Amino acid sequence: MAAPGENMRINGDRLWDSLMEMAKIGPGIAGGNNRQTLTDADAEGRALFQKWCEAAGMTMGVDKIGNMFATRPGEDPDALPVYVGSHLDTQPTGGKYDGVLGVLGALEVVRSMNDLNIKTKHPIVVTNWTNEEGARFAPAMLASGVFAGMHELDWAYERTDPEGKKFGDELKRIGWVGDEEVGARKMHAYFEYHIEQGPILEAEEKSIGVVTHCQGLWWLEFTLTGKEAHTGSTPMNMRVNAGLAMARILEMVQGVAMDAQPGAVGGVGQMFFTPNSRNVLPGKVVFTVDIRSPDEKKLNGMRAAIEAAAPKICDELGVKCSIEAIGHFDPVTFDPTLVASVRKAAEDLGYSHMDLISGAGHDACWAAKVAPATMVMCPCVGGLSHNEAEEISKEWAAAGADVLMRAVVETAGIVE
After folding, report:
1. Which of 103, 119, 92, 113 is nearest to 46 (CA)?
2. What confidence tens digit (pLDDT) does each residue in 342-388 have?
3. Whole-prediction pTM value?
């Protein structure tokens, strides 16, 4: 006898084939992907996604920051759409699933609804958000942030990459500046499907993560200015070493995060030395401190502690220090009704599940500012992500998409 909801499942083979086909665009050097935002590879991935959406009977809209919205009509022309999506852009050494699973999983939901002739009251919109990663243009979740009114469009256009290229110019160059006003669309609800990017689901042997909250984040960009000098001929007591100041700040950040345990993390993943020569002490070092916590008081306390300690460290070494907050969002509590819908979908389908707090930021964090929102997660091997070795199984991918489909259809309202 079939379990409840047994007939409402996605086509797992088709979803997996789509993931593998998209992974051919912007291949990495070690099995993953380098499809950074607003590159030629990003443009190619967008074109393939549009082709697939139109083949599934959807119409594509694009806004002025390049967000893509593929609409499956609902039966009620006045009903607000249910949005489902994530992002196609990757880290420079990214995996094949981070973000992409959420976009193609949403597409597969529509494809499977077509197969099963499921009609809904509310339209369904499959979404690809621009520049979720923030790897090339800071901050992360830039376009969904503009959509939610957290950033100004002109400010976003002026963001520059490490080569000094502007976001707006690159968006125009690849041909994905749309004509829709950013944020003009209204949502009935928003769902996002994603790999966990952490080890908890796999360790607990659970197939589905029911995401109840998302950690808040601060990105603090440090610019340390010292004095370029020969590493061999400059006496130790006469150096103005920006690199040494950076090292001491990194150690301090580690201490601040450890003091804030449990439920807090901090570290540095990007730094630039100038002139970056083997035998020259750096005259300038730029790096970004990433701190996160689901507790807003703890998160802001960490920022205050870091910003108080860093200038003192630099003063002792004669190094100048400036700090700019280049990325931030408060901790997010996802909509309880949608969370319950995801949990019930997992139960109805017989999938093991558990509640999760997302350690990573997602476009859902900004979508939650303008509509009820939640997330579904599947495990990833070893919790590894933002790495070309990132891996999931076909079964995990399909299970999460099954849950996504049931929750989305319930929220959109089946029309018999």
Report:
1. 103
2. 999 999 999 999 999 998 899 999 999 999 999 999 999 999 999 99
3. 0.86
